[in-house]
Amino acid sequence: MARAQWLRAAVLGANDGLVSVASLMIGVGAVNDGPRAMLVSGLAGLVAGACSMAIGEFVSVYAQYDIQVAHADRSNNDEGEEDHSLPSPGKAAAASALAFAAGALLPLLAGGLVRPWKARFAAVCAASSMGLAGFGAAGAHLGGANVVRSGARVLVGGWLAMAVTYGVLRLFSLAFNTHVSSA
């Protein structure tokens, strides 16, 4: 059971990395057609996201541990008693960071290997779509849910995140360019 929870958390973390970095790269691609800008934004998203996931997981596990210790103290249990159901905060942090980075590598590598803007944009979208469907199906399998429905839900959710990011940054770019031109 604990192994399945770790695997499910890894799949969800990888999915977060994929959606975040793909959306970031596509959003930057909406305003800058240079390969370096997309690649740098993807790499920055990978590093920042992995750090954020690690810190968040570390704090979350410690907070849960503190809650359980306080509860045990109120219940007059042995103060030295530990709950072994919680993972090590360091291991949980490392696992979250690695899972996020693994997912983030998919769009980053797809976009980093293609030079022309349209092909790079398509490669990021295609690789991300395959990853989203795969992560959705894997998460459903581990959780005992409908694989097709879950895969489709994750895919559509990822597409929505990428489309919204592209649209917002494209509108920003158009508004900014209009403002700069009229100044």
Automatic annotation (TrEMBL):
GO molecular function, one term: iron ion transmembrane transporter activity
Keywords assigned by UniProt, alphabetized: Ion transport, Iron, Iron transport, Membrane, Transmembrane, Transmembrane helix, Transport, Vacuole
GO cellular component terms, semicolon-separated: vacuolar membrane
Membrane topology, as annotated: Multi-pass membrane protein
Pfam families named among the record's database cross-references: VIT1 (PF01988)
Catalytic activity: Fe(2+)(in) = Fe(2+)(out)
Location of the protein in the cell: Vacuole membrane
InterPro entries (alphabetical): Ccc1_fam (IPR008217)
Keyword presence, ATP-binding: no
Segments crossing the lipid bilayer: 6-31, 43-65, 92-114, 121-142, 154-176
GO biological process terms, semicolon-separated: intracellular manganese ion homeostasis
Domain of life assignment: Eukaryota
Keyword Transferase: no
Annotated function: Vacuolar Fe(2+) uptake transporter.
PANTHER family according to UniProt: FE(2+)/MN(2+) TRANSPORTER PCL1
UniProt family annotation: Belongs to the CCC1 family.
Listed name of the protein: Vacuolar iron transporter
